[in-house]
Amino acid sequence: MQPTTPTTPPSVLSARSLLAKNMICLRQARDWSQERLALEAGLHRTFIAHVERHARNISLDNLEKIARALDVETYSLLLP
Amino acid sequence: MQPTTPTTPPSVLSARSLLAKNMICLRQARDWSQERLALEAGLHRTFIAHVERHARNISLDNLEKIARALDVETYSLLLP
C-alpha cells in the first residue's frame, strides 16, 4: 500500500518560502525573537517579520546579514 | 612542516562573489552568453553583467529567475 500523505518535491517551494521556513527554524532553535534577530543582523524588526511572511523581496546583501547573524552560510537559508 | 599556501575558508567570500563565481561557471558550462542567460531568465543583459561583476545587490526573486533559467535550485548559486 502507498502512504496516503503525498510528498511535495522541495523545488516546488519558492525561494521566499524556503527562506522563511529556514529563518524561522534557525531563529527559534536559538530561542531568538524577531527583535533579537533584527538586532543581531542590523536590520529592522518589521523587515524580519515581512521576510518571514514571504512579503518581502529581500536583497542578497541583507540575506547575507541574516546568515551571519545566525552563524550559517548564506546558501543554508535557501536549502529545501 | 606547514604547507606554505594558506587555504582560504569558503565563508570568507561574500555572497556576491560566490554568486558571480557559480553563475559564470554554470553559464559557461552551458556555453551560454550573458545575453542568452538574460533571455532565458527574463532579465536584462546588463543586469546579468553587473551581477557577474559583483556590482549589483540582486533580489531573491531575480536570484530565483536565474536559478530556474540555469535549471538548478536557488541555493546552488550561493554554494562555496
Q: Would you tell me the structural class of the helices and strands of chain A? A: mainly alpha
How far apart, in Å, are the first and last alpha carbons of chain A?
Answer: 27 Å
Succession of helices and strands of chain A: HHHH
* Percentage of residues assigned to helices of chain A: 40-55%
Whole-number radius of gyration of chain A? 14 Å
The number of helical runs of chain A is 4
Shape of chain A: globular
**Main beta sheet of chain A:** none
What is the tally of beta strands of chain A?
0
Taken as a percent bin, the fraction of beta residues of chain A is under 5%
Mean of residue pLDDT of chain A? 90
Largest interface: A-B, 23 and 23 residues
Poorly predicted segments of chain A: 1-10
Say what oligomer this is.
homodimer
